[in-house]
Design a protein that fits this description.
Layout: E1 36-37, E2 51-54, E3 59-63, E4 70-72, E5 80-81, E6 90-91, E7 94-98, E8 106-111, E9 119-123, E10 135-136, E11 140-144, E12 147-148, E13 151-152, E14 155-160, E15 168-172, E16 181-184, E17 188-192, E18 195-196, E19 201-202, E20 205-210, E21 218-222, E22 226-228, E23 232-234, E24 238-241, E25 245-247, E26 253-258, E27 266-270, E28 281-284, E29 288-292, E30 297-304, E31 312-321, E32 325-328, E33 332-336, E34 349-354, E35 362-366, E36 378-381
Parallel strand pairs: 1-2
Antiparallel strand pairs: 2-3, 3-4, 5-6, 7-8, 7-36, 8-9, 10-11, 11-14, 12-13, 14-15, 16-17, 17-20, 18-19, 20-21, 22-25, 23-24, 24-26, 26-27, 28-29, 29-30, 30-31, 32-33, 33-34, 34-35
Amino acid sequence: MSEVRVNNLSNENNTSGPTISGITTFSSPYFFVPPQGDTASRPEDCEPGSLRFNTDTAHLEYFRGNTIGWTEIEAELTAPLGGGTGSNTGLGVRGIVGAYNVNGDTIEFLTVSTLGNTQDFGDLTAGRNNPGQQVSDESTMLFMGGYTPSGWANIIDFITVASLGDASDFGDLTQKRMQQSSVNNKIRGITGGGQIAPNYTKVNTIDYVTIAQTGNAVDFGDTTNAKTSIASVSSSTRGVFGHGAESPSPVGYADFVTMASTGNATTFGNISANNRNSLYGGGSSSTRGIFFGGYITTDIEFITIATTGNSQDFGDLTVARFQGTGLSSSTRDVLVGNRITPGSSNGNTIDYIEIATTGNAVDFGDLSSDLGSETGYGGQSNGHGGLSG
């Protein structure tokens, strides 16, 4: 076997590295260092399969061609999942959804990587609806706010994601409200917007909690305007709140916050699909945010979380609906529920998409509960994009 030892290799013009043909084996027990740079310096004229390290996200990424662009290489969370039967056991990302209606306290779960119906997880501390997108790190999920038989609630519950059982008290929001939406990374859970009593008054409040510590929420700042019925998506550094029913009248702009700091939100861009004014759902990888559904539409759109700007078309749901929630891993977003028409009770549909691509949603399974007509979900997973890095 021949052996060549050199310090540097380049092409004949000394403008780039050499082209190596055939099968190449790296047998060192150490490492090799790929090219690296931030998101803004991503090359656009490279070959599919090109590899680099992104210094903004601290992930390897590869080029999938001009249509899709750069995609991060992320390891799926493989935490042990307790309880469940069939596909909902073993290892994987667990998606959890609950708070179906004002008199119900059901929590259900699924495994994001495996098609099938949801299974029973446990119960919330109190029945409530319309709590919005929720907060979860790898081990703990929080359910914030909602509407109970006694009215608007400031309740925060928590569950341990890997083991089945009932929720416990975590603390309280700064005010009683429902139809807010939440973003989070591994440390902080942040919830923004919503509506309060009396008269369903829209608010611009943003609260936050430290997920690992039980206790009451603390003021973070304000959204750019009062809004309710919104969806949200997260990377490890940035949380984006979509628009919804807003005050003054709907303007259609999403906001973003930097999760490690506190302060008021900044305009991100327009979520351009029609009828984004009633609890549409979200989900994300570490780089791409997904918004789906609304009153009443099949639209699915996406944004690049690190780059402000308007959303782009992704595809369509299998059926138009609103008041849903998204349960995502680093590669897949599971689109759960809900109402197909106002007052309807047939909202058990679950679809899914592969986040890095574009195209229409595909059937995943069904919610197992009878949800009733006045419903609104809260849900999240322990593997969404905010937990990367």
